[in-house]
Amino acid sequence: MNVSAESVFPEKYRILSGSTLKVIAVVTMLIDHIGAVLLSMYQPALKTLFTLFGREYSVYLIFRDIGRVAFPIFCFLLLEGFLHTHDRFRYGMNLFIFSLISEIPWNLMFTNTLRYEKQNVFFTLFLGYLAFCAIEHFQDEQTMQLFCILGLLAVSVFLKADYGWRGYIFLLIMYYMRNDKPGQAILGSCWLYYEWRACFAFLSINMYNGERGFIRGKAAKYFFYWFYPVHIIGLVVIRRILFLS
Question: What residues form DSSP beta bridges with 57?
């Protein structure tokens, strides 16, 4: 992979591979979900530790704030995957299949039942991926391109997937600003004003060196797909044992 010459940081500071970014995204997501599933049920974790700029911080809130970093990094990695995959159909099918696999764990996480009105984040990523494909496929047909983008936006509103239509628009921002990392960071951060802690993700994104890194092979690749539904199930089981039994 060739890293863009544009970045917030000089080249000597671009030290993070794609594999490292994946690890950062997964770890911050796990921290976020520990907060959402477990610490939300643990009263001591909800007590205020300190106040900063008028905002009261608890252990629970700190965990959730750290977790905001995960989504922008996953969006960036999705875009990198789209740009460099040798089989876009299979890539898209993997996203769709794991969006279905993750739905029951996702529902259990929020309602302890098999039903929940909102859908998991894989659906948001999948819709963004379809938008990327449509933009490139209809690059000479602006009307069809706009029709597909708006159609997928409507689907994102209907599905109520995680991060919603705002997450879908964010993916479009990441795509259109893909060759301008500073602009991507500025515009993306402005769009994420309602989740401003997520903006810190652009620090690691701009430290990306364009290298694949240490994660190679199908087993390693599918580990990151399976981690999402499996870790949610694990947290749901732990919650039931500790707080709901």
Answer: 50
Q: Is 107 exposed, middle or buried (0-12, 13-18, 19+ CB in 10 A)?
A: buried
DSSP string of 4-34?
-S--SS-GGG--B-HHHHHHHHHHHHHHHHH
| Structure confidence at residue 6 as a pLDDT band (50, 70, 90) | confident
Q: Which range has the worst mean pLDDT, 63-67, 180-184, 188-192, 213-217?
A: 213-217
112: left (phi over 0), alpha (psi -120 to 50) or beta: left
DSSP 8-state symbol, 192: T
Section 207-217 average pLDDT: 90
Give backbone dihedrals phi and psi of 160, rounded to 5 degrees, phi first. 55, 45
pTM over 0.85: yes
pLDDT at 219: 86
CA pair distance 59, 69, nearest whole angstrom: 17
CA pair distance 88, 91, nearest whole angstrom: 5
Instruction: Report how far apart, in Å, the C-alpha atoms of 127 and of each of 112, 133, 159 are.
Output: 26, 10, 10
